[in-house]
Amino acid sequence: MIEVIRGDITQLRLDALVNAANESLLGGGGVDGAIHRAAGPELKAYNRRLGGCPTGEVRISPGFKLPARWIIHTVGPVWHGGDRGEPALLESCYRNSFALALEYQVRTIAFPGISTGVYAFPKDQAATIAVSVMRDYEDRFERIIACCFSEEDERIYLNLLRS
Ligand code: APR
Prior knowledge:
By secondary structure, the protein is of the alpha/beta class. The chain has helices spanning 30-39, 41-48, 86-103, 123-137, 151-162, and strands at 2-6, 16-21, 58-62, 70-75, 108-111, 143-148. The protein starts with a strand and ends with a helix.
């Protein structure tokens, strides 16, 4: 079951939230900043021991003060026009997040729009990639949530899921 929710991902009480992190995993702005603020300082201390994360890959941490049990940190590609492997790297963020979630018996998971903020990946292309991977994993999770932060994002996902 794929759902579209508009709101702040840090409020969701789920098995796992996916974070759009950077390679340091030590926090930043956007959803990364919101997740670190809500999870508390233990998250940064925990992630410091992970030694970073390459673009396209994932690492997992506890949710600490978040209502969610786990945080799956993934590093999306920075958009440079689309001919530096950005689409494939973004797809691997989603696939690797689902694979790690299955290893941790996660049944309910929410994704922000990875790479579509500071990293400037075009929202419609990113959502098309996200939904195609979500559909591949749809029957292995109870709830897959696309957590949109703006009405524009929500409309893009709803139109894709209707088609
Ligand atoms: N809940 C859900 N979605 C959010 C939230 C939130 N609280 N805050 C922001 N977003 C949305 C943005 O509107 C955007 O659609 O998350 C999407 C991803 O945007 P960014 O957070 O800017 O992430 P990204 O584009 O992947 O850039 C990652 O930004 O914050 C830094 O440390 C991060 O360096 C990394 C870079």
